[in-house]
């Protein structure tokens, strides 16, 4: 299997897209450390996965990506348990236009924090064996969602940060590929709670619903398959994969130099 012997870390792994990422990585042979703040959901998922794949393939760690200390400890525990880290999926994210500082802290700062701590384990410049990091942004990382400007900002930040890290890795020789996942609407708890989290932009809830009707809802399996491709295809570095109900395509970003 493509990921036999590989060790992965997935944040926000207990539910939704993170669960789908975890499952497809395990289906393809990887061991997975599931990091999440939802202990009940995380432990319940691990029970299911242990029955399917055996007890030595998973590790659930209660970890808040807003905490440097907790991520650092979780990565170390993963490396100690599985013998290293080859794959990181910075997936944890929230929608909250009311407590927008928390959205920035989780969605953008959490991705940066996880990436930088993973470098200590994965980069060939620090004795690591290289690997791949896939950061979960959104279609809102490629174009604005008027009903959630801060969420949009965090996702644009994730796209830009990830592309810059891909270029830095190539230039400096980290031996790590960096790619971004940009799905449209996906049926998850976050999606279900959109209307309650728009704050001062709640008047735009109907307009957002119209976007859902225009764009449609993406199949979770298509989201997971796009992550698997960005993890396994060694040619993919600095890519942003747009996933809609109709298609999966890599964004052709404008070039401004040369
Ligand atoms: N559902 C959608 O329509 C789309 C979601 N996304 C992104 O996908 C990612 C996953 O979202 P969903 O699966 O939809 O959400 P979800 O709410 O279903 O699952 C998110 C998971 O992350 C965990 N989490 C939240 N804050 C955390 C923190 N501080 N530390 C650790 N874990 C934390 C939650 O406990 C939960 O298990 C997010 O980054 C989201 O922005 C992107 C595009 C579309
Ligand atoms: C409303 C919060 C949703 C939170 C979950 C999530 O991330 C969902 C994102 C789904 C769709 C995002 C669409 C963004 C569209 C913009 O790019 C818009 O400007 C597109 C304009 C149409 C075009 O073809 O350019």
The total count of strands amounts to 8
Radius of gyration: 17 Å
User: Could you say which overall geometry the principal axes of the C-alpha atoms support?
Assistant: globular
Distance between the termini: 41 Å
Give the number of helices. 8
Detail the poorly predicted runs: none
Percent of residues in β-strands: 15-25%
EC number: 1.1.1.141, 1.1.1.232
Keywords: Fatty acid metabolism, Lipid metabolism, Oxidoreductase, Prostaglandin metabolism
Family: Belongs to the short-chain dehydrogenases/reductases (SDR) family.
Pfam family, one: adh_short
Structure overview:
- By secondary structure, the protein is α/β, with parallel strands linked by helices.
- Helix content is 45%, strand content 16%.
- Helix 4 (100-122) packs parallel to helix 5 (149-172).
- It starts with 6 loop residues before the first strand and ends in an 8-residue tail after the last strand.
- 1,4-dihydronicotinamide adenine dinucleotide binds at residues 11-12, 14-18, 36-38, 41, 63-66, 91-94, 106, 136, 138, 183, 185-186, 188-191.
């Amino acid at each position: 299997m493509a990921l036999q012997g590989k060790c992965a870390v997935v944040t926000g792994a207990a539910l939704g897209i993170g669960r789908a990422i975890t499952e497809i990585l395990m289906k393809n042979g990887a061991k997975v450390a599931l990091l999440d703040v939802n202990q009940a959901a995380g432990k319940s998922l691990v029970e299911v996965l242990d029955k399917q794949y055996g007890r030595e393939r998973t590790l659930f760690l209660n970890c808040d990506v807003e905490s440097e200390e907790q991520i650092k400890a979780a990565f170390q525990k993963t490396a100690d348990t599985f013998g290293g880290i080859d794959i990181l999926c910075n997936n944890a994210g929230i929608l909250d236009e009311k407590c927008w500082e928390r959205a920035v802290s989780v969605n953008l700062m959490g991705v940066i924090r996880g990436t930088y701590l993973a470098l200590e384990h994965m980069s060939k410049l620090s004795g690591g064996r290289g690997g791949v990091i896939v950061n979960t942004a959104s279609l809102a990382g490629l174009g604005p969602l008027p009903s959630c400007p801060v969420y949009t900002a965090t996702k644009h930040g994730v796209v830009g940060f990830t592309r810059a890290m891909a270029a830095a890795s190539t230039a400096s020789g980290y031996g790590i590929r960096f790619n971004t996942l940009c799905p449209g609407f996906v049926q998850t708890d976050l999606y279900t709670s959109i209307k309650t989290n728009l704050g001062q932009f709640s008047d735009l809830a109907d307009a957002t619903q119209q976007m859902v009707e225009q764009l449609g809802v993406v199949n979770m399996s298509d989201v997971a398959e796009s992550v698997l491709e960005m993890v396994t295809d060694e040619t993919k570095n600095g890519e942003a994969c747009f996933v809609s109900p109709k298609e999966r395509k890599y964004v052709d970003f404008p070039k401004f130099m040369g």
